[in-house]
Write a structure and sequence with these properties.
Layout lengths: L7 E7 L4 E7 L4 E4 L7 H9 L15 E6 L5 E2 L6 E3 L5 H4 L3 E4 L13 E3 L7 E4 L7 H13 L2 E6 L4 E3 L8 E2 L3 H4 L5 E2 L3 E5 L18 E3 L2 H15 L9 E4 L6 H4 L10 H18 L4 E7 L2 H5 L2 H6 L6 H4 L6 H16 L6 E6 L12 H10 L20 H12 L4 E7 L7 H17 L3 E4 L8 H10 L11 E7 L6 E7 L6 E7 L6 E8 L6 E7 L5 E8 L4 E6 L3 E7 L15 E3 L3 E3 L3 E6 L6 E5 L11 E2 L4 E3 L3 E8 L9 E7 L5 E5 L3 E4 L11 E4 L5 E6 L7 E10 L6 E8 L16 E10 L4 E6 L1 H8 L4 E8 L5 E4 L8 E6 L1
Parallel strand pairs: 4-24, 6-7, 6-20, 7-10, 10-16, 16-17, 17-18, 18-19, 19-20, 30-36
Antiparallel strand pairs: 1-2, 2-3, 4-21, 5-21, 8-9, 9-12, 11-15, 13-14, 21-22, 22-23, 23-28, 24-27, 25-26, 25-28, 29-31, 31-34, 32-33, 32-35, 35-36, 37-47, 38-40, 39-46, 40-45, 41-44, 41-47, 42-43, 42-45
Helix pairs in contact: 5-7, 7-11, 14-15
Length: 819
């Protein structure tokens, strides 16, 4: 079929950054127009809830709706991973979020070695460092936060081929210097007035920029030590480590979002090769990891490569024509599948796309017309008869389409929507829309979904998630099996989703009243199910609070209720009992708590629920009431281990799974002293490896390299020591990271690798003797990689100062203290 992928806006709102971003596809290329709106989520919520916006005329009552909930029909497991988030760090536990993603445009150029990224067109193409200079610190913190909250991690791995570069003092750099490239239409006037937007005053794009201004080129070899570091710290995916690795973000608009390094739209073959190579690298380090991609932004990006979008020859797209006439994303799936059949290694495990509604829904607009459009446009996720009402003008039916593509081109893949947002977080219309979306995800069998970004806790939309994942404050959830909910109503006004909780046997029905005014009488008929005498009712309305209402009677397998305008109501129907569903067993606790210890620990696991039994695991999997080791007494933890435990008791719901990670560093600290495998300076003094001394100055840099392959255990301290022959007063010295270990003593000075971040600075004593640099963080970072480290040394003086080399009596030393 021929898809309508013509012109139209790509609307996105980033609440984490408190800015609005508007992407626009124009006829001859893809350009990015930015509208920056200062608005915190709290302020937005206050405005929307104040009643300032006009409402439609009040309606007393809407037409009655009858719903038949058939517990034996249309049964399908509901994946808990559809309730995921992006950037929800502080609220993962309250949201009971099972999966957490870190991604977006800035992660496309995350430099793990510098712990810095480039913001691309989102913020003047600036490379900005995090506060911590520890390699990979941002992602390490992200994974640890998720482990503490019991959420799976989705980590974005850049594949564009460029990552951020910052100055030696970690100050930021940018790609379009006004001083270098001339006047531009806009700049970061408040913080970096020389950082332009790459658009000349006449509206033309700057195309002659040097991509090395704010970025460095990289390959999969650059990323491999990072994956090794993650696995070294947290274990393989199968043992509780990072489970999902995402292959970058939205390739088909790189030439817009990252045009300073990718000015030409990415071709199909280019994207496939990068996905293949980076996925193979990740699998070589962790064969149990799940690879996720291609993370395309939306409708046009499903069918056309970045190159074809840039050329915009819709009648004969050249890149598609060069690849057998196949649509872009199906072609990628087919090539990756063929690669697996040829090489025997699965290079993609989860097929992921993004979707943002194109009619302005992704905004704070709560006009009557926009609210009604939100009520309708969620049909694009599933309805084969719904024609998108924007420039798309086609039947999107995204989830069925994704499953069809998987079945045709790469059977066995999971499906994921890792970015989506329908807006209006601070208004009840945003909440009913979000509740509708979550119901659709479960009913349609999507495997994973992560919302961009997590809503603010003060908003109704945040509470819409809690209606599915923590409605009672005790982690009460929607059921885990979707069942039929056949309604005679209009789903644009009232949608209903039904589930069975297989643990308790309860049927849980979510009634979402979208109508802007008037209550709706609802009758629930229960088929193939024996209900209890009463049912619980939990409700979210424009009052912005989840309330438990009075229980309702179940009469002749029927429940009658009234759904207020713009409300989300959860009905919990217990099985064969006149009482509500049973209480939940208290989650297990560990004593001592997880942490780092210098000796084996005897861990006691307990539950506050009297008479509860406990099962636990040590292999990273979640125990259940029937799997895992039965706890019968304290557990001895003699090596680094992650304990997971669940408590259970007859007549009660199982507890949540508790997790505690123990790092055991036994035997006390030991010291290892290494000498360099190579050392030289930029004046060629020791190229032959014969000089016992080597000169250093402000202009003459010493390079030393150490091989730590034989070092094991946990590094607690590392010092670089080099012997100063000269007596020089008040001399400052700096130790700096070297960007590559690909050098030897014979390497010409002009071919020595460049320098990275500053590791340590000292003032050398006047006397001759060893001077020391604390490079603990750098050595710790390399322990998870190839264990090769190169350091560069400079002095603050223009005159030369002599130091002994590896050929001298007092050789340079790397002194490592480890547990």
């Amino acid at each position: 079929m021929t898809e309508n992928v013509g012109l139209g806006p790509i609307l996105r709102y980033n609440t984490a950054q408190y800015v609005s971003k508007v992407y626009i596809i124009v006829s001859n290329n893809v350009s990015l127009s930015r509208a920056l709106v200062n608005s915190t989520a709290t302020a937005t919520a206050a405005l929307l809830l104040s009643g300032t916006f006009c409402a439609p005329p009040a309606r007393a009552q809407n037409a009655a709706v009858t719903v038949t909930v058939d517990v034996a029909a249309n049964r399908r497991p509901i994946s808990p991973l559809i309730y995921g988030q992006n950037y929800a760090e502080g609220n993962l536990s309250d949201l009971n979020a099972p999966i957490h993603r870190i991604g977006g445009n800035n992660l496309t150029r995350y430099n793990w070695q510098l712990n810095a990224d480039n913001r691309g067109n989102d913020w003047y193409f600036q490379s900005i460092a995090d506060a911590s200079s520890a390699p990979g610190a941002r992602i390490d913190s992200f994974i640890q936060t998720n482990r503490t909250a019991g959420a799976e991690s989705m980590v974005t791995v850049p594949i564009i081929g460029w990552v951020a570069k910052v100055n030696a003092d970690r100050s930021k750099r940018w790609s379009y210097s006004i001083a270098k490239y001339g006047a531009q239409q806009d700049a970061d006037w408040s913080w970096a007035p020389d950082a332009g937007n790459g658009v000349r005053a006449n509206g033309s794009l700057i195309t002659n920029n040097d991509p090395n201004d704010a970025s460095i080129p990289v390959t999969p070899a650059f990323m491999k030590p990072w994956i090794q570091q993650i696995v070294g710290k947290f274990g393989q995916a199968s043992a509780g480590g990072a489970r999902y690795y995402i292959l970058d973000n939205e390739y088909s608009i790189w030439h817009s979002t990252h045009r300073d390094v990718q000015p030409t739209g990415a071709r199909m073959g280019e994207v496939f090769a990068r996905m293949r190579d980076y996925a193979a690298m990740i699998k070589s380090v962790d064969p149990t990891a799940q690879i996720v991609g291609p993370e395309e932004w939306g409708w046009s990006g499903y069918f056309y490569s970045g190159y074809d979008l840039q050329v915009a020859n819709w009648s004969n797209p050249p890149d598609r024509a060069a690849n057998g006439g196949m649509e872009y994303v199906p072609w990628l799936l087919k090539q990756l599948r063929n690669e697996e059949l040829t090489k025997g290694v699965r290079l993609l495990d989860v097929f992921s796309l993004h979707i943002y509604p194109q009619g302005g829904e992704f905004s704070d607009d709560v006009s009557t017309a926009m609210q009604r459009l939100r009520n309708r446009s969620t049909r694009s996720l599933w309805d084969p008869n719904y024609v998108d009402e924007t420039w798309i003008n086609d039947r999107v039916r995204l989830i069925p389409r994704m499953k069809e593509w998987v079945n045709t081109y790469y059977p066995g893949l999971k499906t994921a929507i890792t970015e989506y947002n329908w807006g209006a977080d601070g208004h009840i219309n945003g909440a009913t829309t979000q509740a509708d979306i979550l119901g659709i995800f479960g009913r349609e069998g999507l495997d994973i979904a992560t919302r961009w970004v997590a809503p603010d806790p003060s908003t109704p939309t945040y509470k819409a998630f809690k209606m599915y994942r923590n409605y009672d404050g005790a982690r009460g959830t929607f059921g885990d099996v979707s069942v039929a909910a056949n309604s005679n109503g209009n789903p644009d006004n009232l949608s209903v989703f039904a589930s069975e909780d297989t643990k308790s046997g309860a049927v849980k029905v979510m009634v979402i009243a979208k109508a802007l005014s008037g209550s709706t009488p609802v009758t629930l008929n229960l088929a193939n199910y024996t209900p209890g005498a009463t049912a619980q009712v939990w409700q979210l309305t424009s009052a912005n609070a989840i309330r438990r209402l009075s229980d309702v009677a179940v009469s002749s397998k029927k429940i009658s209720l009234s759904a207020p305008a713009q409300s989300v109501t959860l009905v919990v129907v217990p099985k064969g009992s006149s009482t509500p569903p049973p209480a939940t067993v208290a989650a297990p606790t560990f004593s001592p708590a997880g942490g780092t210890y210098t000796s084996a620990q005897t861990v006691t696991i307990s539950s506050a629920t009297s008479g509860a039994s406990i099962r636990y695991t040590t292999n990273g999997t979640n125990p259940t009431s029937t799997t895992g080791t039965v706890y019968s007494g304290p557990v001895t933890v003699s090596s680094s281990t992650t304990l997971r435990a669940i408590a259970y008791k007859a007549g009660m719901n199982d507890s949540a799974v508790s997790t505690a990670a123990y790092t055991i560093n036994t035997g006390g600290p030991t010291t290892v002293t290494l000498n360099p495998t190579d050392d030289r300076n930029t004046q060629n003094d020791n190229a032959a490896g014969t000089n016992p001394v080597i000169a250093c100055s402000q202009w003459n840099t010493i390079y030393v390299r150490f091989d730590m392959t034989g070092v094991t255990g946990t590094v607690t301290n590392a010092k670089l020591r080099i012997y100063k022959v000269s007596t020089t007063s008040g001399m400052g010295m700096t130790a700096t990271a070297v960007n590559s270990d690909a050098w030897t003593q014979a390497t010409a000075p002009t071919s020595l690798p460049g320098l990275g971040a500053t590791l340590a600075s000292i003032t050398a004593p006047n006397a001759a003797g060893y001077v020391e640099f604390d490079i603990t963080a750098a050595v710790q970072g390399q322990m998870g990689g190839d264990k090769i480290i190169s350091i560069a040394l400079n002095t603050s003086l223009g005159t030369w100062t002599d130091f002994q080399t590896r050929e001298g009596t007092n050789k340079p030393q790397l002194v490592i203290t480890k547990q």
